[in-house]
Amino acid sequence: xxxxxxxxxxxxxxxxxxxxxxxxxxxxxxxxxxxxxxxxxxxxxxxxxxxxxxxxxxxxxxxxxxxxxxxxxxxxxxxxxxxxxxxxxxxxxxxxxxxxxxxxxxxxxxxxxxxxxxxxx
Length: 121
Known about the structure:
Largest sheet: 3 strands, antiparallel
Mean pLDDT: 77
Number of domains: 2
């Protein structure tokens, strides 16, 4: 079973992608099929945003969600802290390498005027 949105392969028994929340399919559409020369191994996600501002972090994640770009978030206390060099209080957004350029552009646009502030009363 495969996620038609992010392309991740799942073991039998799974019905929904844990990252995207969409129903799994038995085969990927032709346009999502593996391109020639690509490895059979999953490519590790790469960081497209790092910082310590939780408001900017949330705004960047929301922008990626609106653009339907699957992303993972990492905080300094996450289990991956031993794998990726993360400084205390650092927040990180990770995406698949194929989505990195678009994700960076979406985040840059979302944060161009600074992170959103509190609503005016």
